[in-house]
Amino acid sequence: MFRKICFMALVLPIWISLSQVEPAYSYPVGDEDLGLPPSYSMSSSKSAAEQIEEPAPVHVPSSRQYLVNRGDTLYKIARDFDVDVNMLIASNDIQNPNRLTIGQNITIPISETNGGITNEQPKIIQKVINTTLTAYTAGFESTGKKASHPEYGITYSGKKAKEGRTIAVDPAVIPLGSTVFIEGIGIRKAEDIGSAIRGSRIDVFMNDLSEAQEFGVKKNVKVYLLAKENV
């Protein structure tokens, strides 16, 4: 009994002392106490999700135009654009599928599989070419010219080569000065030629040699030769 009384005598003052200690942290309730800027006010009538503006709807084109070339057939055009030939006939109200005229404007319906050219890109197309892509630079490895050469970085057309614009082509396939859309790359200008660029091969100009080497060889890439109305 004596031990119990002694224990209570020791513990009771400690418990009373602890119960009187103020908490180390206090949590104010009002926004004013939090010191938050107005834009982060927690008393806003709208939730964060409600304050986010909905993005404007994006218009997706339903068709694009193709100009018939010599040797074209509806079946070839349908294959080039990955569309059903019957859809092509219906979209153009064609009475005789075996009769096309050079320069005839054909409407190409856009589907999920053939939408290579986006809404922002030109859509009047003269020719579709399946190409092999490589890359080159202005350096000695690609052109045989050193930086000290007076024509270093100058294309066959006389313009200075520019990444994001210049490509080298075979003029017999893509005339110099033409504008093309390369799937996966974008709009480019035919400004240069090369001894190894023959047929449907295209060389894409890049500034950095390592990037050009990493680009490698890309086969069966669709390239759309755009009509002058686009540029």
Automatic annotation (TrEMBL):
InterPro entries in the record: 3D_dom (IPR010611), 3D_YorM (IPR059180), LysM (IPR018392), LysM_dom_sf (IPR036779), Resuscitation_pf_RpfB (IPR051933), RlpA-like_sf (IPR036908)
GO molecular function: hydrolase activity, hydrolyzing O-glycosyl compounds
Domain LysM: 64-108
Residue ranges crossing the lipid bilayer per the database entry: none
Alphabetical UniProt keywords: Signal
Entries under SMART domains matching the protein: LysM (SM00257)
Gene Ontology cellular-component annotations: outer membrane
Entries under Gene3D superfamilies matching the protein: LysM domain, RlpA-like domain
Protein name per Swiss-Prot or TrEMBL: LysM domain-containing protein
Organism this protein belongs to: Paenibacillus ferrarius
Lineage: Bacteria, Bacillati, Bacillota, Bacilli, Bacillales
